[in-house]
Amino acid sequence: MIFSQMVLANATRMKNCTNQMKREDSWRVARILAANVWQILLKKPAAQLPIPVRVASR
Fold first, then answer.
1. What gap in Å lies between CA 57 and CA 35, rounded to an integer?
2. What's the superkingdom here (predicted)?
3. Region of residue 2 (phi > 0: left; psi between -120 and 50: alpha; otherwise: beta)
4. What is the value of pTM for the model shown?
5. Measured between alpha carbons, how far is 49 from 29 in angstroms, rounded to an integer?
6. Quick check: 51 and 58 in contact, CB under 8 A?
7. d(CA 29, CA 17)
8. pLDDT value at residue 44
9. DSSP letter at 57?
10. From the centroid of its chain, how far is CA 16?
11. CA angle 34-26-43, nearest 5°?
12. CB 14 within 8 A of CB 33
C-alpha cells in the first residue's frame, strides 16, 4: 500500500472529527493521524522503510 493511500485511509476514517478540526482540535487530530501512520510504518520490516525513517527509529 502506498504511503499516500495509507494517509488517505486514515483521513477518511477520521472524517467524523472534521467538525472538531476547526480550532485547536485540528492539532490533536493531526497528531492522532500521524500516530496511526507511524504505527503502520513501524509494522513493516525495517529494510522496506526509507532510510531516514530507519535512522530516526534508532
1. 14
2. Eukaryota
3. beta
4. 0.32
5. 25
6. no
7. 7
8. 63
9. T
10. 16
11. 10
12. yes
Q: How far apart are the first and last CA of the chain?
A: 24
- What single letter denotes the amino acid at residue 45? P
For 4-56, the pLDDT digits (tens) are 777 777 777 666 555 555 656 677 778 888 888 887 777 766 556 565 655 55
Instruction: Provide the angle, in degrees to the nearest 10, between the axes of the packed helices 3-13 and 25-43.
Output: 130
Q: How many CB atoms lie within 10 A of CB 52?
A: 8
d(CA 33, CA 51): 22
Task: Compute the chain's Rg from CA coordinates.
Answer: 13
- Residue entry with cell 495509507: 6
DSSP-derived 3-state class of residue 24: coil
